[in-house]
Each structure stands twice: as structure tokens, then as C-alpha cells.
Amino acid sequence: MFQPHREKQSQRNPFFDNAKYLAIVLVAVGHVWEPVMEGSRATRALYMVVYAFHMPAFVIVSGYFSRSFAGRPDQLRRLVGGVAVPYLAFEVAYTLYRRWAQDAPQQAFSLTDPFYLTWFLLALFVWRLSAPLWRALRYPLPVAVAVAALASLTPRIAADLDLQRILQFLPFFVLGLTLREEHFRLLRRRAVRVAAVPVALAAPAVAYAAAPHLRMGWFYRNTSAQELGYGWWAGPLATVALGAVALVLTVAFLAWVPARRTWFTVLGAGSVCGYLLHGFAVKALQYWELVDAHPVLATPVGRVGLTVAAAGAVTLMCTPPVRRALRWVTEPRLEWAFRPAAAAPAPGAAGPPDAPDAPGAPGASGAGAPGRAVPAGAVSRA
């Protein structure tokens, strides 16, 4: 979801900004539940529901906004500035943070082994570069599913680039590449929105029943079936089954995302800031063992308090002042690093106009809000 740095707010698509903000709240809430869900089946069940679809939803929208990527110099420049630079900067920042917070000077810097939530930026960089290949294939989605299934039954895939995650989440990105504006319009139909209600009600109940039996590693998609203690055949089965669950829950989520401007629409433009910053607060719970020091945080009241605090904190991190303060690293201007861009191709000469990028990246305008055309303009190494 990248866009010109000075794009006017009136050009943005409210639907996708609303979706980005709501999804980033779920990401932050899910992360603070992690250290306190032990012993609470209900919290674990809610955590499973969130993890079943929130990253697939991010990846699908990332693919949707990558449809026109063809590797042109201007597109590569935006990819470097909007994805590679934030990845490198926050990879260093999280490493230094752990060195300081845990007095761990041995914590190594790594450009290829993503630290915590920076994996998504690295994955997006790789997926985006591969977009022209997937668009050239006759049957891209079945091929991507086959790649993900093979990855899920392949132990010991190297940690470099967090390749297991890149491959297992790949079908969602490729699906996004195949979507069109009319597909998002379908979500606004009354029948879809009505059907989303029983799905939303049933999901926690099903997760509650499955919570004691299902390993969370399936949702992280960063290990093979054998490494989770299952036979090789469980990997492809889980790829298809959990992929279907993710799609159903993503549809239910997006069906109820408002398509109009709301009080939180402006916060969607700063979702990359919320994504990259909230990890410091979450890691503080772990590094300083705050849950052990304050057992009240692991009580029902404490969990509710952490949920509200996480939602409030990530909301503040998405506000325009924070976005402006971090623009030098999340949306840097790189004129000094690149040669002057060539003249833009004539209208219609290179397919659709270049679209913004991913849901966790600097704000996106959409290719048109569902139902109304609008001008186009993030657990690895810890």
C-alpha cells in the first residue's frame, strides 16, 4: 500500500484505510495476549481466531495492491524506500532494543534473519519482486498452493529470509494479485454481510473446542509439519484446511469493514507506524518479565486491561503526528540514491496505473472503494 508521499487525503480509499486500522488493532491485541493466555482457554481461543486470519488478510490486500508491479525503475525505488529501508532500520532498532533491555550484547545483527515482526516487510519485498512471474503463469493460485504445501512438509528450511513463512503465506499474496475491484464490491452485498454474522459467532466457539488440541505453530506458518510433531501428510492438509478457514474469516471481517469515512479512517494511513512501533511495548512485557512481576495481568481483569491498553497504544501510534515524525524512515525520499526517473509511459501502455502496496506499509489509497469508484493515488528471531 504505497503511494505518493504527498497524496491528498481525499484521494484515499476509506475502505482499505478502515480495514488496515482494524487489522493492526487485532495484531497488537493478539501480541499482548501471547504472554497471558496460558491457563485461559477462552483467551487462547480468541488468540487462535485472530491468528487464523489477520496475517492472511494483510497478505491478500498486499497482493491486491501489487497487481501492477512490473519492476519498473520507479516501482523499484518505491519498493526500496517503503519496504527495504523500514525493514533495515527496524531490524537494527529491535536488535539494539533487546541488547539494552535484556543486557544482551551478544544479540547479533542480521540482515537475513528477521527479528520479530520485521519478517512481514522482508516477505513483502520478496513477494513484490515475484509478482510479474505470478501474473505470467496460467494457473498461479494452484501453483502457489502447491509451493506452500511442499514447504509445509519440508523440515529445516533455512531461517534466512524467514523462507518458511514466505512460502507458506505465498498463496494469499497470489490470491490478492488475482482479485479485482468487483470482488471487494461483492463483500458489500447484504447476503454476504448477513452470512458473516454466524461465522463470527461460530469461530470463537469452534476455537474454544479446538484450543487444547491444536498447536499454534500451524497458524504462524514458520515450521514444517514434522517439526510440529506430525506426519508429513499433515502439512499439505493443514495448508488447504487452514487456508480455507483464513479465507472465510477474512471475508467475514472485510464484509463488516465500513466503506465510508469514519473517525479512524485517517489512522489507516499510519498503520505501518502502529505495526512497527507496537512491538517495542509488547517485547517489554517479555524482556522485563512484567507478567511474572505483576500476576494481576494474567487474571481476567488484567487481560481485559492489556487488551484495552494495546488497542489504545496502537491507535496513538497510527496518528498523523507519529506518521509525520517517522516519515524519514517509513516513507523516505531517496532522490540522492537513484538516478532521475525516466518519463512515465503513455496511458494504457503498461497496464493499470501503479497501485499502492501493502496493508502494513505507508498508507494506501485503493483502486476503488467497494461500491464506489475512488481515484487511485506484521514470530521469528526474538
- Domain count: the total is 1
**Structural class label:** mainly alpha
The outline comes out as: globular
Radius of gyration: 20 Å
Major β-sheet, in short? none
Average pLDDT rating? 87
Question: Counting H and I runs of at least 4 residues, what is the number of helices?
Answer: 16
Kindly report how far apart the N and C termini lie.
Answer: 27 Å
| Helix and strand pattern | HHHHHHHHHHHHHHHH
**Percent of residues in beta strands:** under 5%
Give the low-confidence spans: 1-10, 347-382
**Beta strand count:** 0
The assembly state of the depicted protein chains is single chain
Give the helix proportion (percent range).
55-70%
Describe the overall structure.
It contains 16 helices and no strands. The chain has 382 residues and is mostly helical. The chain has one domain. The N terminus and C terminus are likely disordered.
Give short descriptive properties of this protein:
382 residues; mainly alpha; 16 helices; 59% helix; 0% strand; disordered N terminus; disordered C terminus
